[in-house]
Amino acid sequence: MMKTSDKRSDVVQAALELIAEKGFHGAPMAEIAEKAGVGAGTIYRYFENKDILITELHKELEAKITAALLDGYPVEQPLRERFLYAMREVFRYFITYPLHFRYMEQYFNSPYGITLHRDRLLGKSGDPDILMDIFEQGADQQVLKALPTSVLFSIAFGSLTLLMRDHIIGFISLDNHLIDGITEACWDAIKK
Amino acid sequence: MMKTSDKRSDVVQAALELIAEKGFHGAPMAEIAEKAGVGAGTIYRYFENKDILITELHKELEAKITAALLDGYPVEQPLRERFLYAMREVFRYFITYPLHFRYMEQYFNSPYGITLHRDRLLGKSGDPDILMDIFEQGADQQVLKALPTSVLFSIAFGSLTLLMRDHIIGFISLDNHLIDGITEACWDAIKK
DNA sequence: CCTCAAGGAGTGAATATTCATTCCGGAAGG
DNA sequence: CCTTCCGGAATGAATATTCACTCCTTGAGG
């Protein structure tokens, strides 16, 4: 039987919207509950506390992003094409779901994200990262600059972050043409 | 007359350290006061409220950074050299004062910073920005890619941000050699 | 079919905590 | 004394979290 309303996902959606727009501290549980059309206590039936709600939401978003990235990924193409594809795809995903970007940004710039980032760099996270793979292969094949993998990553993704921000506040418009130019520029940065 | 202890700067220093390490919400006024060796009420003799303390601190840091960047800036050199100099100098400054980096990052990722950023992009801020000048000239002289100024900026500074982060958590070590490699990579990204 | 009791989802007022800010008594210095 | 500067307890607002209670649904028994 199809439930017409799933309170848990109502809560998740409300939390996503509020936190993405106003930050963790601009999103009191009471407001999340109200926006979800749910009693304040109901949230605690699904999430032990606010922290868990926050990290759970992060995990869900990350799974979606990974899925989107994997879908149509040109495994057989040369490195350059795979890199360009991945960058463009991430741009596209975040442009389609700006709330997801804002949320991930909030999460990343918070104690949660800091420790996650540290663990990830140290390889303590299970999931194989497409981008990291590209950079490592590039190092082996000597088509990329002789810089540490994580540096190559930062060069590509640091740009993406600031650009997405400017796009979301409406200062630039990331259309396909501009995205192509940007991803090519990033490729120039990392290629030998 | 030289005061041996200037409470105002004690407060500023304490706030800088606490906020840089734990964020705005991890730095209660009471704790700032304690760290500064000052009564909680004393802070309010110098700063009307927490918001003002925060923005004031931001202004002071920004002034220092601008000064450091301007000092020794090779005005007469070609664009490429000026760009490399500016990038390296910013890296060096933040490596010397990691707390300043962390603070600026916090500020930037907060309601304060968002509006500041918007104003700056719209040119509503008085100070002429060295980096922006470089990019604009580069566009005129056609030595840079035909991308909007703000995009060129994001490519360079987005990278810098993530890299500084990795440096501060100790995952990479930004020595002079690595910094040179990175700034060259950024130049490759933006040059035609 | 109808009744009704059990179980669990859902609620939101009450509670406990955490802060920013205020305020007043007192120290320091003139 | 008087003025300026401090300190830190007191205050009040904002919040996360709890919990006693109210439905609803379900299905066993008649």
Summarize the structure in short:
The first copy, chain A, has helices spanning 7-22, 29-36, 40-46, 50-70, 79-96, 98-108, 111-121, 130-141, 149-168, 176-190. Chain A is an all-alpha fold.
Lay out the secondary structure.
2 copies of one chain form a homodimer.
Chain A: H1 7-22, H2 29-36, H3 40-46, H4 50-70, H5 79-96, H6 98-108, H7 111-121, H8 130-141, H9 149-168, H10 176-190
Chain B binds a DNA duplex (30 and 30 nucleotides) through helix 2 and helix 3.
Uncertain residue ranges of chain A: none
Biggest sheet architecture of chain A: none
Question: What's the CATH first level of the domain at 76-190 in chain A?
Answer: Mainly Alpha
Q: Whole-number average pLDDT of chain A?
A: 92
Number of strands of chain A: 0
**Rg of chain A (CA only):** 19 Å
Count of separate DSSP helical elements of chain A: 10
Structural category of chain A: mainly alpha
| Largest interface, C-beta closer than 8 angstroms, per-chain residues | A-B, 42 and 43 residues
Query: CATH superfamily of the domain at 76-190 in chain A, please?
Result: Tetracycline Repressor, domain 2
Give the helix level of chain A as a range of percent.
over 70%
